[in-house]
Each structure stands twice: as C-alpha cells, then as structure tokens.
Amino acid sequence: MSPRSSIAPVVASGTASVVKLLVATLAFIGAYAGVETSHVASVQAPAGVAARTQPVTLSSESVPAATVEAPAAGTIAVSALGVSRPCHRPYLIRSVIDNPRPDSALSYGWRLQRWSTTTRTWRTYLTSHSGFAGRSQAAEWQPSVVDNPGWYRAELAVSGGARLRSARFLVSC
Asked: What local confidence, expressed as pLDDT, does residue 14 receive?
C-alpha cells in the first residue's frame, strides 16, 4: 500500500468535517442575523402607523394574609388553596427549619400521607425533597390531591433530625 493511498481517507474525512463545521457556523450566523433583523424591525414602527395596544388583565387566586405568615419552628401549617377544578384540592404546607450547623447544607423531605382504612396505617401519597445552607429557612410545598378524598397529614423529615407531623385534615369532593 502506498503512503498516498493511506493518507487519502484521512484527508477526505478531515475535509468533510471542516465542511460540516463551516455549514453549521454559517447557519448559526444566519439565524443570529435573522433574529437581530426581526428584533430591529419589530422595535422600529413605520412613521405614521399607530401602535395597537390591547389591555391585558392578570388575575390570580390570593391567599388570606393570616395564612401567609410563616409558622413557628417545629410546627407544620397546612392551608387549603382555592379549588381549581371539581375534586382537585391544592394545599400550601409550610414550616420553618433551623439548621444547627449553618456552615453546611441541610436536606429535608416532605411527605403527604393518606390514612388507609384497609391497613389502618398512614401511607405515603406524595413526596418532595429539597435542601438549603444557612441558619434557618421557611420551607414551603404545594401538593395537590386529585380525585382521592380521605384523611391526610403532612410530614417533614429533616436530615439528622426529628420528623414533624401536621394535624390530620379531611379532603372531600
């Protein structure tokens, strides 16, 4: 095999890669230029043309001021949020977590538990995990119960600490 025949595939492969890279670069530059051009065109309206405006009304469900306050450390507060659909119950669950070692991270987990009348035990329905670094933090979670009425409670488990449980509450449709 001659040295020329062994180099030809390498050169052809390298040339193909360079061509692909050149095409991708040109496509990116074209897209960027198109975005810049459309942005400039949308900002500059022709003279004599009045801009059309349409009022927009924003709405949201508000939580009563009494439920916005953070609960005391060592307790869990459960507040029902507005009903968005039949048998769809969103909740706001809050607690304050104190970190005994503020220089290191602390992880915690929420569990929404449902009472099982069959086994006569609390069974996990939903979970969520998070963490933070610092002295203390107000932790919030917004789970929803959909088409599953019954008795529930929230549980907060802090790494290296105790478990906190809320009072039970009834979800009905």
From this structure: 66
